[in-house]
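Write out the 3D structure for:
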Amino acid sequence: MDLLIDTHVLIWLTEGDDRGERIVGPFMDQDAVTISVSIASYLEVAIKHSIGKLAASVEEVRSCVRGAGMLKLPITANHAEIFATLPPHHCDPFDRLLIVQALADDLTIATVDPTFLAYDGLRLIGVS
């Protein structure tokens, strides 16, 4: 299984919050699992940090990602094309982009956001 970490879970991991570890921890040391972080999450953190809505900075997130051996997932033209056709169940553009990336790249999303459940074919962990 290959995982894509939702921004919220990534922030928990960056800040050392146990909730992130509970969701992603079981997969961290498995050789058969690749864990990725979308460039969209870096942008979301940068925006929220710059307007004072988030304490964690992009530098802290980058350090967490590197330290945990996670990969950075780029945003491609293919993702943009799929984004244009994605049903509007979720109104957050960053989350919608993660959903597109997971569907296009056959990834499972680690999230606690129940809105993700509205998307057919999307594999999730962490959400109840």
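The longest helix spans residues 93-105.
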